[in-house]
């Protein structure tokens, strides 16, 4: 909803598009090419999502064809559109690295790729070539009658193992199973390390940006893990810290505690009061098990208890009907993720 004299709010959404690529290009394998009918169904499904959600700001993941997406979202009034990296392509027009995108009804003042600073590489003893699996967007969006907001769109490393067994053809079953088991466990842990490090780097960038210019922060995307996981704890800051520089946080001067509040991010779900925690919907299913992998995180400016908050979360919505009760005609081109949207009301 764009702000006007009758409206004092705006909406934010995040949606993983699940291999959004226009034919005749392919994703990951030469056989993965949508027919024209499949592509039309996918475009139709996204149109339906945007019509139903009507977001003012939306972050997308798994985008292989950003130019096609830009044309699509403009039909829904999302006239400002950015990406900060190009989809990776191998041989024979097979794309293997999707990008994230940001679309907005409000002006996007700037948009940059979040880089991995050398200081973090040195401090954490990372390999010099460490990079994001999918470069995140850092943007400044000027929201009418509100303020400029620092917006991040990300798609963190998946849980998929980064290793493959090298002895699958052996005739010794013990060796084969042992090698596959080790590859799966070690590769999964490598993915966790990558995902956690990406979270740390993004949080580092948020803090650095806040030190330069303090403004409300919105972080959104497919985080490929639950927010209470060890890998994602660095992203929300000091929620579970009890000490700072060896001192109990509760014993710090109130002024110092308030400074800490500036750098803490909050799950948007926790900032609303209409849905109980046990009623929270999953955003992704694997082997019939649901998990919340898609999040919108907010700075203290959207926290009602903060005495200088600027806005509040009035509604939190997960559109999961295509996952729970799909209809082939309507959901033929759907995503394997649910969309997450929040309605924000500005305090006046």
Give a structural overview.
The chain has 348 residues and is of the alpha+beta class. It has one domain (9-346): Deoxyribonuclease I, Chain A, CATH 3.60.10.10. The protein is 26% helix and 28% strand. The chain is built from seven helices and 19 strands. It has helices at 36-53, 66-74, 118-123, 173-212, 254-262, 321-324, 328-331, and strands spanning 9-20, 26-27, 57-63, 80-82, 88-89, 94-97, 99-104, 108-113, 137-142, 148-155, 217-222, 243-244, 247-248, 266-267, 284-286, 289-291, 294-298, 311-319, 339-346. Strands 4-7-3-1-19-18 form a six-stranded mixed β-sheet, covered by helices on one side. Strands 8-9-10-11-17-14 form a six-stranded mixed β-sheet, with no helix packed on it. Strands 2-6-5 form a three-stranded mixed β-sheet, with no helix packed on it. The longest helix has 40 residues, at 173-212. The protein starts with 8 loop residues before the first strand and ends with a strand. The model is unreliable at 2-6 (pLDDT under 50).
């Amino acid at each position: 909803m764009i702000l006007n004299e009758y409206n004092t709010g705006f909406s934010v959404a995040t949606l993983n598009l699940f291999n959004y690529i226009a034919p005749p290009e392919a994703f990951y394998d030469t056989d993965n090419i949508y027919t024209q009918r499949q592509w039309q169904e996918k475009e139709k499904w996204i149109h339906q999502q945007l019509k139903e959600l009507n977001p003012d700001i939306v972050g997308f993941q798994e985008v292989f064809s950003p130019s096609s997406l830009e044309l699509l979202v403009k039909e829904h009034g999302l006239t400002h559109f950015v990406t900060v990296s190009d989809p990776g392509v191998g041989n024979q027009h097979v794309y293997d690295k999707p990008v994230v995108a940001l679309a907005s009804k409000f002006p996007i003042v700037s948009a940059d790729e979040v880089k991995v600073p050398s200081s973090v590489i040195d401090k954490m003893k990372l390999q010099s070539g460490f990079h994001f699996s999918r470069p995140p967007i850092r943007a400044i969006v000027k929201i009418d009658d509100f303020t400029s907001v620092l917006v991040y769109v990300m798609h963190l490393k998946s849980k998929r193992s980064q290793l493959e067994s090298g002895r699958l053809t052996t005739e010794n079953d013990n060796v084969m199973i042992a090698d596959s088991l080790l590859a799966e466990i070690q590769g999964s842990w490598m993915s966790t390390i990558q995902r956690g490090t990406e979270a740390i780097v993004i949080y580092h960038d948020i803090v650095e940006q806040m030190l330069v210019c303090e403004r409300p922060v919105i972080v959104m995307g497919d985080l490929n893990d639950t927010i209470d996981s060890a890998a994602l704890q660095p992203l929300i800051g000091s929620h579970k810290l009890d000490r700072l520089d060896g001192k109990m946080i509760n014993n710090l001067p109130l002024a110092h505690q308030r400074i800490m509040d500036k750098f803490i991010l909050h799950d948007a779900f926790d900032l609303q009061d209409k849905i109980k925690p046990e009623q929270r919907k999953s955003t992704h299913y694997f082997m019939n098990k649901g998990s919340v992998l898609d999040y919108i995180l907010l700075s203290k400016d959207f926290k009602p208890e903060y005495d200088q908050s600027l806005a509040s979360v009035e509604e939190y919505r997960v559109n999961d009907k295509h996952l729970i009760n799909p209809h082939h005609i309507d959901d033929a081109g759907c995503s394997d993720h649910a969309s997450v949207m929040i309605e924000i009301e500005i305090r006046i």
